Structure formats: structure tokens, C-alpha cells
Amino acid sequence: MTTLEKTYRRLLRVYPAAHREVYQEEMLGVLLAGSPPGRRLPRPADALDLLRAGLAVRFSREARADCSTAWRDAAALSALFVALLIGGFAVATVTEAIADRLHHVPTTLGGAAGLADPASRAVAWLAVAAAALAGRYRAAAVLSGVTLLVELGTLTFWVGLTPWAAMRLAWVPSMAILVAAAFATARTARPARVLAGRLGLGMLAAAVSVSLFAAWAERLPFLQVDDLSVWLPLALFAGVTIGLEPPVRRRVALVFPGMLLAPIVLLQTWDSTVLAGTTTWVPETVTAGEVALTLAPLGIVAVAAAGFARRFAAGTGGHVKVHE
Question: Which residue ranges traverse the bilayer (predicted)?
């Protein structure tokens, strides 16, 4: 590759990635054909013309619409990954409870109630994922709201058994809020099954299927429950992400980890600052004020997620219309 070609390729990077994928080689051929033999660098006028044209394409309404579409696609896939991850973990909890009953292992909550909790959560989260895979993002957002109620109900139930520990489960309702906001934002995105492709759908199915065997992982010397219910699904989600279109792939790599980590950071910060020193022991009962104080981050997440979704829709609505 000559110095001239390398320089032209660098200059062409000012164009959007989607534009380069289609036109870069053709444009490069024209530029090289129009250059006199022996030239090592483009003429300043040619370089400026490329930069001007590239910026015009990058900031055109159509390019902004494509960018908005990529963000919506990324929001839909990231929310789908979260739903499958939590739903798969709930499935693993169900199988673990069944295995404990079969082997007569004593548990905190036995009987039907011990299965009803994770089973209801698994059904709720997997219903959200099914709607997303079908491209029914409005339905997925509504089902995420139902899932939030299920998670809050579960939280309330466990407060009666292990009050102080149960209130540390606020991360999951926070995820339900973020997933609902993501699907509301992604209401015009392409169906997740189309974005993932056949291979991606296979990996998504595998991510949930392996959770069925998580309960038996601890019986093997080289596996733990989290290996099959958390880490392997995350690896499969990474595989799906690698196979996406570059604009969507880059955004999923930002949105999905952000959705997982932001509530954790918020709750940890809240616990270490606002709740620090409120108690130094595990109480037998928890007052309403302590419950409200501990679960207040859910309100923060809800307000932030709603504000972001509303601002995103207001800022990109016109561009999406152009794209469509």
C-alpha cells in the first residue's frame, strides 16, 4: 500500500462507517486514478474537499437518522440481554430449588413457596425477552413494568423473612426500570431476531438453556452455579454482539455494561454514604423509614431513566421519521 493510498484512507475516515462500507473502495479507486504517477500526498485542495464532503455526509439528516436508529437497536438488544440474563438466573434458581428438594437439602423457604418466587420471576423476565425477540417493543416495555411489580412483590415477601438482607435486592427492580425505559426508547428499532441473525438467536437460546443445568454445576469439581447462570450467558451475549453491524455493535458495547453496572454503583454509593451508620447490626424488624430510605435509589433510577428516554425521543424523533 502506497503512502498516497494510506493518506486517502485516513482522510476517508471522516465519512460515517456505514457510508465507507459501501463507497470507500470506489472512492479510493477514483482518487488514486486521478492522481499523477509518483505523487506521495494528496493535493491540499483534494484533502480539504474530502474533509468537507465527509463532514457534510456525517452531519446530514440521514446520517443522524442512521445514528439514532443504531442507538435504538442497541437499546433494544441491551435490554434483551438483561432480560435473558436475569430470567436465566431465575430459571437456574428454580432448578436449584428442585434439586434441593430431590436431595432433601434444607432451605430457607421450602415447599411451593420456595418455587413460586423464582418461577414467577423467570416467567416475567422471559416474557419480556419473548416480546423483544418478536419486535414488540411497546409490549416488552409494558411487560417490563409488570416485571417490576413482580420484583417488588418478591422483595416485599422476603422482607418478612430476612428483612435487612432482602432490601439489598433492589438491584433487580432497578434493572426492570432500566429495561422498561430502554424498550420505550427502542420502540421503532428493528426486531431483535433480525438484528441478532440465526447464529445470534442460537447463542441467545443457549444462554437461557444452560441455566437449566446450573443446579448441577456444583456437583462438578470445575464448575459453579454462577458459571452457567451468569458468566457463560455473558460470554454468549458477547458472541452475539461481535456478530452485529459495526454501528450497533459499538453502541451495545457501551449500553449493556452501563445498564448492568450503573444500578450497582448507585446502590453501593447509597449504602456507603446515606445508609452508613444507620445500623451496625441485623435487626429483627425493619421500620418503614428504613425501608423507604434503603429503596429510595429505585426512585432515582426511575426518574433518571424516564428523563433520558423522554429526552432521547424528543431529540431524535424527527430524524427517525426521515429514516423511516
Answer: 74-98, 118-134, 141-159, 165-183, 195-216, 228-245, 252-270, 290-309
